[in-house]
Amino acid sequence: MKELLLVCAVAVMIVFGYFIMKRLDDFLANNHHLIDEEIAENSLFIAFDNPMILDLLIPLFEKFSKGKPNCQLHFLFGNTEDIYDKLNKNRIDFGFIENNASANDDTYRCLIISTKQNSIICEKAGCTIEPLDSSVIQTAVIWKKASNNAFANSFSDFLFSNQAVISAEYVK
Known about the structure:
By secondary structure, the protein is an alpha/beta fold. It is 44% helix and 26% strand. The protein has helices at residues 2-41, 54-67, 80-88, 150-161; strands at 43-48, 72-77, 94-98, 108-116, 120-122, 127-129, 136-144, 168-171. Strand 5 and strand 6 (127-129) form a beta hairpin. The radius of gyration is 25 Å and the shape is elongated. The chain starts with a helix and ends with a strand.
């Protein structure tokens, strides 16, 4: 009889533990989702197909960050197809891609930026890498026309207001 009572008590504890763990998992999943939303709400995700131009645009991003200190900038890089895919899935807010005519359609806004290739300093190797061709590079900044992210809208306005500074031209 004692053994049956002990087995029942252990079974009740296991069932009780299962329900507590289920509630804890739901709680943690909900918090993880809320944290992800908060990060996305206070962030801009900016992707480059050529991360070398990021160095040339640092003054632009610093100026934007000074005006919007609560916005976290996240820089990513990948190929052009990945950037379009992430834009379509709302995983990134802006893409800096090789000047590409396909960026100009009903879904995206496009601003062409002219940048000159600079030398790259490799600190670990202690050397400078010079470009073979120091000509001007045309880079398209693309973003979706409809965005729910207030910082994305602020950054697009910022890009338009700084067109002369960054040698940009709006593509309609």
